[in-house]
């Protein structure tokens, strides 16, 4: 099967210090793929590269065999908590409506249909009661739920989420996993940076184990084992800093 996303020999550096080298990997369509690896392993760097937010030193990222740039409208991205400053004046509903702009361009105002899609995404995340609240006046976990609602409102085919479960309670965690599994049934693909090794098997069906380069990738059954986890978390830790 042709993969949905292919990363070919990706090399990324910040101020000439390598963050990712020789990354070759692929994401299968309709998978729930976890990206795991220790702090500083380059997980966020990898997904920002897929989103074209970072210019790599070299390498290619393709979606369905073409440069990823052509398909980014089909991708919803939830950045890692703390990477976005949401202290500007906007209501919760405004933020979720941003998910609709990819379908409209920046000039057209959202219409009734967009609003009803946004409200239903807020309902899915059990945040509809907060729709007129300023985003800056929410707790960290509530903000996170709103960002996920924004991704749902975008109605993308591919969801790329950077530690969406960070700082949220267990009820919300289960809710997000249920939604992910439900959207997978509808044909969507998920790429999720995930920090809790004990739930990788329960939440995902594919995994990419990363530490600056790909340690292993594939189905959970084929690569999620002690040997690969140890290689990423212990044998390589600090080796390149
Ligand atoms: N904007 C930046 N400028 C300079 N160095 C950076 C920048 N962003 C990341 N780095 C460095 O690149 C490396 C990879 O960072 P990245 O954020 O991709 O790691 P990560 O796997 O997402 O870590 P975490 O689990 O802490 O989120 C780290 O050593 C980090 O310090
Ligand atoms: Mg990160």
From TrEMBL:
<dbReference type="Pfam" id="PF00005">
    <property type="entry name" value="ABC_tran"/>
</dbReference>
<dbReference type="GO" id="GO:0016887">
    <property type="term" value="F:ATP hydrolysis activity"/>
</dbReference>
<feature type="domain" description="ABC transporter">
    <location>
        <begin position="5"/>
        <end position="236"/>
    </location>
</feature>
<protein>
    <submittedName>
        <fullName>Metal ABC transporter ATP-binding protein</fullName>
    </submittedName>
</protein>
<dbReference type="InterPro" id="IPR003593">
    <property type="entry name" value="AAA+_ATPase"/>
</dbReference>
<dbReference type="GO" id="GO:0005524">
    <property type="term" value="F:ATP binding"/>
</dbReference>
<dbReference type="InterPro" id="IPR017871">
    <property type="entry name" value="ABC_transporter-like_CS"/>
</dbReference>
<dbReference type="InterPro" id="IPR050153">
    <property type="entry name" value="Metal_Ion_Import_ABC"/>
</dbReference>
<dbReference type="InterPro" id="IPR027417">
    <property type="entry name" value="P-loop_NTPase"/>
</dbReference>
<dbReference type="InterPro" id="IPR003439">
    <property type="entry name" value="ABC_transporter-like_ATP-bd"/>
</dbReference>
<keyword id="KW-0067">ATP-binding</keyword>
<keyword id="KW-0547">Nucleotide-binding</keyword>
<comment type="similarity">
    <text>Belongs to the ABC transporter superfamily.</text>
</comment>
<keyword id="KW-0813">Transport</keyword>
């Amino acid at each position: 099967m042709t993969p949905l996303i292919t990363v070919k020999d990706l090399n990324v550096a910040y101020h000439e210090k390598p963050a990712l080298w020789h990354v070759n990997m692929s994401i299968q369509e309709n998978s729930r793929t976890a990206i795991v690896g220790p702090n500083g392993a380059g997980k966020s760097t990898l997904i920002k590269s897929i989103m074209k937010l970072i210019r790599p030193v070299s390498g290619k990222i393709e979606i369905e065999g073409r440069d990823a740039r052509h398909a980014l409208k089909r991708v919803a991205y939830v950045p890692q908590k703390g990477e976005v400053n949401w202290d500007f004046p906007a209501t919760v509903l405004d933020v979720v409506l941003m998910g609709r702009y990819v379908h409209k361009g920046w000039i057209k105002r959202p219409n009734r249909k967009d609003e009803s899609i946004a409200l239903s995404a807020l309902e899915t995340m059990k945040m509809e009661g907060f729709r007129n609240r300023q985003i800056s006046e929410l707790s960290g976990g509530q903000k996170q739920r709103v960002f996920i609602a924004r991704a749902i409102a975008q109605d993308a085919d591919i969801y790329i989420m950077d530690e969406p479960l960070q700082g949220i309670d267990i009820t919300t965690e289960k809710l997000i996993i249920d939604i992910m599994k439900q959207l997978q049934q509808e044909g969507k693909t998920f790429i999720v940076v995930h920090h809790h090794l004990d739930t990788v098997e329960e939440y995902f069906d594919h995994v990419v184990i990363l530490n600056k380069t790909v340690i292993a990738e594939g189905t959970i059954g084929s690569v999620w084992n002690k040997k690969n986890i140890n290689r990423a978390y212990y044998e390589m830790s600090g080796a390149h800093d």
